[in-house]
Amino acid sequence: FETLRHFLLPELMAKRSSQRRLNLWSAASSSGQETYSLAMLLEEHFPELRNWTVNILGTDFSSAILNRARSGRYSQMEVNRGLPAPLLTRYFQREGMEWVIKESLRRKVSFEPINLAKPWPAMPQMDIIMLRNVLIYFEVPVKKQILAQIRNVLRPDGYLFLGSAESTINLDEKFERVNFEKNGCYRLRS
Length: 190
Hints:
Blueprint: H1 2-15, E1 21-26, H2 33-45, E2 53-60, H3 63-71, E3 73-75, H4 76-80, H5 85-91, E4 92-95, E5 98-101, H6 103-106, E6 109-113, E7 126-131, H7 140-153, E8 154-162, E9 175-179, E10 184-188
Parallel strand pairs: 1-2, 1-7, 2-6, 7-8
Antiparallel strand pairs: 3-5, 4-5, 9-10
């Protein structure tokens, strides 16, 4: 998220200034924490994007988990994992034993069903794709298939984030790693 904040989003915003449009995708969003974190990052650090068309999509194959993501309800333990207190008070409200994302932030994201291991529906070109800690669960042929589909939806100058134990090496040579201060991501080779 620091790489997004300090490097990639400013770069992409400069490149998209005439279109004023960004598409971000959390490809295995589970119950939505990553998707909402993207929305909070944009809200907190990029107020100029309020006048842009910004689409933040979270997908998963489980309709039950997508319904949970849409509800934006989290336990105390879930919000304690890495969420700073100022963001908790700004973007959540307490309801009984749970914390619920405020409607103003929930409206900034959408959740749709996609099974990454099967053919995907038509999708817009994405500027940022978060596919962290997902490929580790698939066999090599399925990993290759998923990365090939990623290439079809990632804009030529967009970025793909994988988990720290994941790589495109020996899976898809059309990606190259881009290193930043503490981490890296991938982009399509020119």
